[in-house]
Amino acid sequence: MNIFFKSNMKDIAQKEHAYFSQKHHADVALTQAKRQCKLMMGKPETLLGIATLGAYKGAVDAKPKAKRNQALMAISRTALLSLFQ
């Protein structure tokens, strides 16, 4: 019985090690993805693209003032969030 217990304990230790290793790699990948998204959203060409898209939607819509206000709010919210993070 002692032989089976030792092999089971060794198997459990290996599975725990594999689990924590996968968890660490997933955390590192998530951190890198968040960092890349922050860097992408902080680029001037990305912010300009968002503003241009909002202006285009506002120009071709039946209610341009509401769309323009919505686009300006989206731009300001994006800029503020990028400053605080």
Any overview of this molecule?
- The protein has 85 residues and is mostly helical.
- The chain contains 3 helices and no strands.
- The chain has helices spanning 2-41, 44-60, 64-84.
- Helix 2 (44-60) runs antiparallel to helix 3 (64-84).
- It is rod-shaped.
Main sheet specs: none
Low-confidence stretches: none
Structural class: mainly alpha
Distance between the termini: 56 Å
- Helicity level, as a percent range? over 70%
Order of helices and strands: HHH
Strand and helix layout:
Layout: H1 2-41, H2 44-60, H3 64-84
Helix pairs in contact: 2-3
Features:
85 residues, mainly alpha, rod-shaped
Give a nutshell description of this structure.
With 85 residues, this protein is mostly helical. Helices cover 92% and strands 0% of the residues.
